[in-house]
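Allow me, if you will, to draw on your knowledge of protein folds for a short while. I have a record of one protein: its chain in single-letter code and its fold written as discrete structure tokens. I should value your view on which stretches of the chain appear to form regular backbone elements. Thank you for your consideration; the sequence and its tokens are set out here:
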Amino acid sequence: MSGWRLTDEQLQTWLASLLAAGRRVVAPVEEDNLALFREVGSADEIRLEPQGRTRWSAKEFLLPATETLFSYRFDSEQVALDAPPQPPEQVLVGLRPCDAAGTARLDDVLLDDELYARRRERTLIVSVACAGAGPACFCTAVGGSPAGTEASDLQLVPLEGGWLLRRLTERAAALVDEDSEGWQPAAEADWAAAEEQRRAVEESIGGEPLPPERAAALAEGFDAPGWAALGERCLGCGICAYVCPSCSCFDVTDAGNAYCGTRCRSWDSCGFAQFTKHAAGYNPRPAQVARYRQRILHKFAWFPLEHGPFMCVGCGRCVELCPAGLDIRQSVEKAATA
């Protein structure tokens, strides 16, 4: 395995060079005692902790919470359409492997969308391997790893006294080629220490990986009576969808008058009562129980049966932040055995 061993000072200098090159850099910062992803103007703002993730993912920098799809205006007797501007080149720094894997799930769903594809093409991802895990983490249960590299172009690995940096894609060359001449190549002992750290973190997460056949078992239990007890606690607040790195549901709205207008899309959630409600008033999921079942089955049955991996990446944010105390891990287990 090839890569470099960086000191804290070298890492800081490299992060500053990303900004100096004129790219938009998005990274974790501390804001109101929370770790949040924000566009930064200085490397000093960036907080790359050895462990611990941000309050929510960096999804909004690939799929904005609200964005204009196009605007229109009447010009004499013709309609003029104004498309959104070309998105900037950006580097997302500090994504945990679960968040980077969430980007891969967004790619599975949205790469046919022109706006998303343009933004994704101009985005490079620098992930940070986890040196520890929280009580809600369960990436290993859904095929992930605290040092997973899915969708990452570069990965930083925190080690005592510094960092390892490994290049994972050809696209990442533009980020490191000019700076790497003065860097020390990582030694075999460094990679051995990184591997030992990965094993230790995985052991601390514990639990057994969900077997692939769990998806079919969940789908077959669509009408199982156990769903009622699982879903009756769901408040339909949408917190789980909004903090999730892989949820991609959105709504489209039009606003305008006789002269001009816009079409926008905004994040939505299959847990909302209006999500599937028809214009005629009919709602195929009239109860919150049905909507909660949809969320579980989408992530753990429908998506893996069609695409392979589970849509859930095991970041655990929905477990930590659900106001009703619902634990998606327990829901999957109980639904599969109901």
In short: DSSP finds eleven helices and twelve strands in the chain.
